[in-house]
Design a protein that fits this description.
Length: 177
């Protein structure tokens, strides 16, 4: 017997997977993008700075005497029930000499829970200041709700933006979309 998939059946599947509940929206939550079956989602940003460049990244010999660090900034997304859905992370390695950024690299990392797919980056920017005092990098990711056996529907688009400077400082910002 073939059972038709209806909006009701999809809603029941989403509730069974813990992706949505009947809980009220909290003040710390942000509405998901239109058509997002995950409902209201919560985003938490995280950051860290560590000495040296990211694994596998080698600066040119001309900057070997300069200090280098890795700045990591990202966003975790949670469903209305508080369950973790996805993470989008940007890693920026940079070296500086207190006058200019002398080396710069970037990479991205993503992770998803069961029933969520990463669809790639929808936009990406990388800009060096004309006087080389900072680099700014940003990207937007696309994630889809794809419960097993039902198919994919509903997207969300978190973005991250980082700035690394010639004085060794770094900042990050981001926003759910």
């Amino acid at each position: 017997m073939k059972i038709p998939i209806t909006r009701f059946a999809l809603s029941i599947a989403a509730i069974a997977l813990g992706m949505v509940t009947a809980m009220p929206v909290s003040a710390s939550a942000a509405p998901a993008a239109p058509g997002n079956p995950v409902g209201t989602v919560r985003h938490e940003f995280f950051r860290s700075v560590s000495p040296g460049l990211p694994d596998g990244v080698v600066a040119p010999a001309s900057v070997n005497a300069d200090p280098c660090q890795t700045f990591t900034f990202g966003v975790n997304t949670y469903g209305q029930a508080g369950n973790w859905l996805s993470r989008f992370t940007q890693h920026v390695g940079w070296c500086w000499n207190w006058i200019q950024v002398t080396f710069h690299s970037y990479s991205y990392e993503q992770a998803t829970s069961i029933g969520v797919q990463y669809e790639g980056r929808t936009s990406e920017t990388h800009q060096e200041a004309s006087d080389k005092t900072f680099w700014q990098d940003g990207a937007t990711a696309r994630f889809r709700f794809c419960p097993p056996g039902i198919g994919c529907y509903g997207d969300w688009y978190p973005w991250v933006n980082t700035v690394v400077r010639a004085n060794g400082t770094a900042d990050g910002s981001g926003s759910p979309q």
